[in-house]
Design a protein that fits this description.
heterodimer; A: Transcription Regulator spoIIAA; five-stranded mixed beta sheet; two-stranded parallel sheet; 4 helices; 7 strands; about 35% helix; disordered C terminus; B: Heat Shock Protein 90; five-stranded antiparallel beta sheet; kinase activity (chain B); kinase (chain B); HATPase_dom (chain B); transferase (chain B); Serine/threonine-protein kinase RsbW (chain B)
Amino acid sequence: MMQTTTHQDGILVLTLSATRIDAASAIHFKDDFRNATAAPAKRVIMDLATVTFMDSSGLGAMVAALKSLEGRKLELCNLTAAVEKVFRLTRMDKVFPVHTSMKEALAYRSPKGMDAA
Amino acid sequence: MSSLARLPLSFGAPRLHYEETINADPISVRDTIVEIMKRLQHEFPAQSEGIISTEIVLAEVLNNIAEHGYNQSNLGDIIVSVLCTDDMISVETRDHGLPMPGLNPPEAELEDLPVSVDDLPEGGFGWFFIRSLSSHMEYRRAASQNIFCVQIPTVSELATQKP
């Protein structure tokens, strides 16, 4: 369900193969995420391009995933319309940094001082 | 007569798109949603707000029944019907699970998100989605049966106006 690629500068990229993060897959998703992020990485970026649907259980799994990073951010990119809507309605788009593309995500440099906040 | 017929009128003759009895478990729920969306996409643009909202509402309504009505037993039937007109998609469910607490659909408001990541909620969004994406809903308990109807506007000023 989750492929990992480590980029230069210690950026861990998670690429999903799942199309739906929902009540049927939420537990599996959380387990996969913990395994995929066990090794330390400076940044974690998740590519959600394949995910065409996410429900409240799926969103809960994303929050659990973020918590398991223990203080690190979980950055997201390539949100489909349905996933974007779920994040926007719950204002979770203010909690997870959202990038429009992987290219933009990789090029992103957080403003000075923001990491410390 | 189906309760859907008693919901507020909208434009165009209602067309039945789906009526099945399904098992209340997460995999059956997912398969059902995929099938309903496939049928609805013959009529509405795939990425339109109304279609996206309908998929979210369907998932929350059906998973609530499996999780709370039938207590995650994966045992129990849900009769699902979907009707649509040009401007409205109506979903009706009937099940024999537990009644809704207080015989009313739960209130759900989005609270301010906590500052600390550890305090973020991992659930409780279901009824918030159903309430904020629908224009009308109705719940009845009749002879040990739960009957729930919800309408989602297909041209959604409702959804686009929400912050």
